[in-house]
Design goal:
The chain has 255 residues and is an alpha+beta fold. The chain folds into two domains: 108 residues, Probable inorganic polyphosphate/atp-NAD kinase, domain 1 (Rossmann fold, 3-Layer(aba) Sandwich), CATH 3.40.50; 133 residues, Tumour Suppressor Smad4. Helix content is 17%, strand content 39%. The strands form three sheets. A six-stranded antiparallel β-sheet has the order 6-5-16-13-8-9, with no helix packed on it. A six-stranded antiparallel β-sheet has the order 12-11-10-7-14-15, with no helix packed on it. It has a five-stranded mixed β-sheet with strand order 1-2-3-17-4, with helices on both faces. It starts with 5 loop residues before the first strand and ends with a helix.
Length: 255
């Protein structure tokens, strides 16, 4: 596909803002509502912000790293941007959909590209019951938290919590405990992407838990349902030979 018009967005960091000025001097920019592709400057945080900002439009997003790690970003170079865009390869991601109900009965819905995480809010460990597709699979998990990660997010918080790295095309989700105390030997589970995961918070008056889906945090949750939002597709562009499949594979052979 030929991308003739692009729009630029950037994080507030000095490095990203400098890159924004350079690119605006070098190229003709289109307004976001007329662009064929969005170019995001910053780190993975800015990429997530940009994805959520333009998700409803289903417009491709091409990131250039002006942050730190930049796992979802391409290498920054001010030269030949139109050529790079038109040679880029697209990876389509489906986010997770989180439906959370708090202790007051109020309902919240959010989307997450990387993971939905539940985290204890006080010094007390959380106690969480886990259902998969309507069936209780773990009656009580004592932990600091638990998360559900997509393949794209499996190298982020999930990996830090000792969860598995998932290839993009694996068709799987990672269910990973965070500092599990009981059961001691439970290390999580691999689930099909069609799975519906329900977390029920036990003793929530004494052991409150927060739920997080990207930029949305819901405090003092009573129950949280997580499923793959297969009705939503997020197209991300990567330079040829450096797509997300390759990056995730490389992550398994690096320190």
């Amino acid at each position: 596909m030929a991308y003739e018009k692009f729009s630029l967005v950037a994080s507030d960091s000095p490095k990203a803002q400098k890159a924004l000025r350079i690119l605006r001097e070098k190229y003709k920019e289109s307004p976001p509502d007329q662009a064929d592709v969005i170019v995001a400057l910053g780190g993975d945080g800015q990429m997530l912000v940009t994805i959520h900002q333009f998700m409803a439009r289903n417009i491709p997003i091409y990131g250039m790293n002006r942050g730190s790690l930049g796992f979802l970003m391409n290498e920054y170079n001010a030269d030949n941007l139109p050529e790079r865009l038109n040679k880029a390869e697209v990876t389509c991601l489906n986010p997770l959909r989180m439906r959370a109900t708090d202790a007051r009965g109020e309902n919240f819905e959010g989307l997450a590209i990387n993971e939905v995480s539940l985290l204890r809010s006080t010094r007390q460990v959380a106690k969480i019951r886990i259902f998969i597709d309507g069936r209780a699979r773990l009656d009580e998990l004592n932990c600091d938290g638990v998360l559900v990660a997509t393949p794209a997010g499996s190298t982020a918080y999930n990996l830090s919590a000792h969860g598995p790295i998932l290839p993009i095309k694996s068709g799987a989700l990672a269910l990973t405990p965070i500092s599990a105390f009981r059961p001691r030997r439970w290390r999580g589970a691999l689930l099909p992407k069609s799975a519906v995961v329900l977390f029920e918070i036990l003793e929530r008056d004494k052991r409150p838990v927060s739920a997080v889906a990207d930029m949305l945090e819901v405090r003092d949750v009573a129950r949280v349902e997580v499923s793959m939002a297969e009705d939503i597709t997020v197209p991300i562009l990567f330079d040829a030979g450096h797509d997300l499949d390759e990056r995730i594979l490389m992550e398994q052979f690096t320190d």
